[in-house]
Amino acid sequence: MSIPRRSLRTFLITAKDAIRTAVDNSQKITFVIGNESADLDSLTCSILYAYLRSSCPPPHAFTPLFVPVANIPASGIQLRPELLALLPHADIEEKHLITLDDIPELSSIKSRLRPENTKWILVDHNALQGTLGSIYSERVGGVIDHHDEENKVSADTADEPRIIEKAGSCTSLVTEYCRGAWDAISDTKLSSGAAHAQGDEAVGDGAVRTLWDAQVAQLGLASILIDTSNLQSKEKTTGHDVTAAEYLEAKIMACTQVAGGFDRTKFYKEIDTAKKNIGGLKLQDILRKDYKQWTEGGLKLGISSVVKSLNFLQEKAQAEANGRSTADAFYSAVREFADEQELDMYAIMTTSTSPEGNFQRELLLWAFTADTVATAQKFETNATGELGLESWHGSDGRSHDEDSEKDWRKVWRQRSVQHSRKRVAPLLREAMS
Ligand SMILES: [Mn+2]
């Protein structure tokens, strides 16, 4: 049984209702979930997969409906201006998104969502982390990802994919995988009721379908463009990204209502500008906005990615602290964040553009315990060459805790700018194990 073709907006409303129904009646439910940084890629590829797969589910699907979940509480959505800028293009609003607050086990709702009644498809990661992981890991039954293989998803995923490949954006891999389903539903006629429900009797079946397609396509294209710098980054862009972007752009240009005002570069700039517009956020929220953590050998590592330089963060910290010296205010704010997450080691990776227009990266690493000081130094020894690390901000990597020799921190300029957290996290985790 397939779910009738519908707009993304109607689909998300139906999907959110389905969680409630599944809980109340102990029914089965399938989730599609991105990683816990909940960046634009994770958010869009989970929605794309769930929407397209629900319109054309495989014959032996666990359930015909696939529910996309953003791997953050609802309060995290406001921290993502690029997402807020993108939603209108897909004719959806913040309230339509499904978040961890909608999953009973993770919220104040007392009812149960029994693991055996659930199936989980992972996109943009391949190991379910945190509380979700501790409850539902066994129920993961499919993955599409572009991070390093964690060997946590079983080799046999039956009707669901098990795809882990290099690509600039995971949304490109999802688009590629769902092309067949998408083409099939684009060719299917709507019931007259569904066309009518759009509220415009003059709009024919075909026009409604192409509009819905163009809305979903913009959602996907935005992530691919953000992840590949408008397909211009040689290091990040792969054939998957180019092909998927062409396919999505064709869906957009097939819709006369959207095509006239659409320009790919203009669209990219709109979303990219929104992404960098974090000046209104509090420093703690900037650190929380694109954050991931791991536990290796009993030690907890966290990494925040930030789209502004350390100078920006220091100025922000000083403005919030009224008067304390910039460095003091910044490091105590960082320490506060790390303490809140109960981290043994914390890294901040920044990206920014130099006055000359060059893309640049900085890396701050802070080890808080005797165990992790050695780890951090091991990381520096092993990774300096590959990452092109150079001491920065007059940082010499000595202990900063005057009472003891326990903690250690250092700031580098990372000259090998092609390496994102996708590479830095495995290097840090390697040093920890
Ligand atoms: Mn991704």
Largest sheet: 6 strands, mixed
CATH-assigned homologous superfamily of the largest domain: inorganic pyrophosphatase (n-terminal core)
Distance from first to last alpha carbon: 47 Å
Number of strands: 11
DSSP summary: helix tally: 15
Cα radius of gyration in angstroms: 22 Å
Count of structural domains: 2
State the name of the first-level CATH class of the largest domain: Alpha Beta
Note the overall shape: globular
Strand order of the largest sheet: 6-7-8-9-11-10
CATH architecture of the largest domain: Alpha-Beta Complex
Bound molecules: manganese (II) ion
Task: Report a brief summary of the structure.
With 433 residues, this protein is an alpha/beta fold. It folds into 2 domains: 8-271, inorganic pyrophosphatase (n-terminal core) (Alpha-Beta Complex); 283-432, Roll (Diaminopimelate Epimerase, Chain A, domain 1).
Structural account:
Residues 393-409 have a biased composition (Basic and acidic residues). A six-stranded mixed beta sheet has the order 6-7-8-9-11-10. β1 (29-33), α2 and β2 form a beta-alpha-beta unit. The model is unreliable at 199-203 (pLDDT under 50). The chain folds into two domains: 8-271, inorganic pyrophosphatase (n-terminal core), CATH 3.90.1640.10; 283-432, DHHA2 domain (Diaminopimelate Epimerase, Chain A, domain 1), CATH 3.10.310.20. With 433 residues, the protein is of the alpha/beta class. Helix content is 43%, strand content 15%. α2 runs antiparallel to α7, α5 packs parallel to α8 and α14 (370-387) crosses α15 (421-432). Manganese (II) ion is lined by residues 41, 124, 146, 170.
